[in-house]
Specification:
heterodimer, A: mainly beta, 4-stranded antiparallel β-sheet, 11 strands, globular, B: 114 residues, 6-stranded mixed β-sheet, 5-stranded antiparallel β-sheet
Chain lengths: 114, 114
C-alpha cells in the first residue's frame, strides 16, 4: 500500500512568489492534515480536513496560506505571496477513523524562500 | 510556557544502555499522549501511544503521570537503529483542537554508539 506522498520534495522560490504543495493521502483515509516545521522549532499543526471539509484550521498562520481538498482526495497548500518566514518543511499526514492517534506522515516538502 | 517540553538532548549512549526521555505538558485537560520517532530528514512515525496505566512494547516503556503532567519513555538495551529524534506528542482535542490536531515537543535526539 502506498504511503502519503508529497510533491515537490524541495522548492526554492523568491519572496513574493507563489508555491503550491501537493499531498496524496493513503487511499481511504478521510482525515488529512497539514503540519509545518520551521528551522529550530517544533512541528506545528496547520489544518485538518475530513474528506473535503475543513474540520480545524486554527493553525493556519495568515491569509497567505490557502488549503484545498476538492473531491476529498488529494490536497494542495498554496502560499501566496511567500515570505522569508514561510521557509520550513511542510508535512502532510493522513489517518483512518479507527486509530485517531496514529497519523501517517509524508516525507515533507521543504520550502526555501529567498 | 511551551505546551509540550522535552529534554533538550542530545543523548549519546553506548549500545546496550538504558536511556530515559522525559516530557511535560501544560494543559491538564489533555487526554491522549504519544511518542513519535523521527529519523534524520525523514517523516515522524508513531512509536507508541501512552496509556494511563503505563505500557510496554518490547524494549520500550511509556509512563504517564497525570498529577505531574509528565510523560516518559524508557528504552532498554539500546540498539544502533534506535538513533533518531524522539518526539513527545499531545492531542489538542480536549482544548479546542480537532482529533489529530497534535501538539509536538521539539524532540530529543538520541545517538547510540557502538
Amino acid at each position: 500500500e502506498a504511503g502519503v506522498t508529497q510533491f515537490p520534495s524541495h522548492s526554492v522560490i523568491e519572496k513574493g512568489q507563489t508555491v503550491t504543495l501537493r499531498c496524496d493521502p493513503i487511499s481511504g483515509h478521510d482525515n488529512l492534515y497539514w503540519y509545518r516545521r520551521v528551522m529550530g522549532k517544533e512541528i506545528k499543526f496547520l489544518l485538518h480536513f475530513v474528506k473535503e471539509s475543513k474540520q480545524d484550521e486554527s493553525g493556519m498562520p495568515n491569509n497567505r496560506f490557502l488549503a484545498e481538498r476538492t473531491g476529498g482526495t488529494y490536497s494542495t497548500l498554496k502560499v501566496q505571496p511567500a515570505e522569508l518566514e514561510d521557509s520550513g518543511v511542510y508535512f502532510c499526514a493522513s489517518r483512518t477513523d479507527r486509530r485517531p492517534g496514529e497519523l501517517f506522515f509524508g516525507e515533507g516538502s521543504r520550502l526555501t524562500v529567498l | 510556557r511551551k505546551e509540550v517540553e522535552q529534554d533538550p538532548g542530545p543523548f549519546n549512549v553506548p549500545e546496550g544502555a538504558t536511556v530515559a526521555f522525559n516530557c511535560t505538558y501544560s494543559n491538564s485537560a489533555s487526554q491522549s499522549f504519544f511518542w513519535y520517532r523521527q529519523d534524520c530528514r525523514k517523516e515522524p512515525k508513531l512509536l507508541m501511544s501512552v496509556y494511563s496505566s503505563g505500557n510496554e512494547d518490547g524494549r520500550f516503556t511509556a509512563q504517564l503521570n497525570r498529577a505531574s503532567q509528565y510523560i516518559s519513555l524508557l528504552i532498554r538495551d539500546s540498539k544502533l537503529s534506535d538513533s533518531a529524534t524522539y518526539l513527545c506528542v499531545v492531542n489538542a482535542l480536549n482544548y479546542g483542537g480537532s482529533q489529530g490536531n497534535l501538539i509536538f515537543g521539539k524532540g530529543t535526539k538520541l545517538s547510540v554508539k557502538p
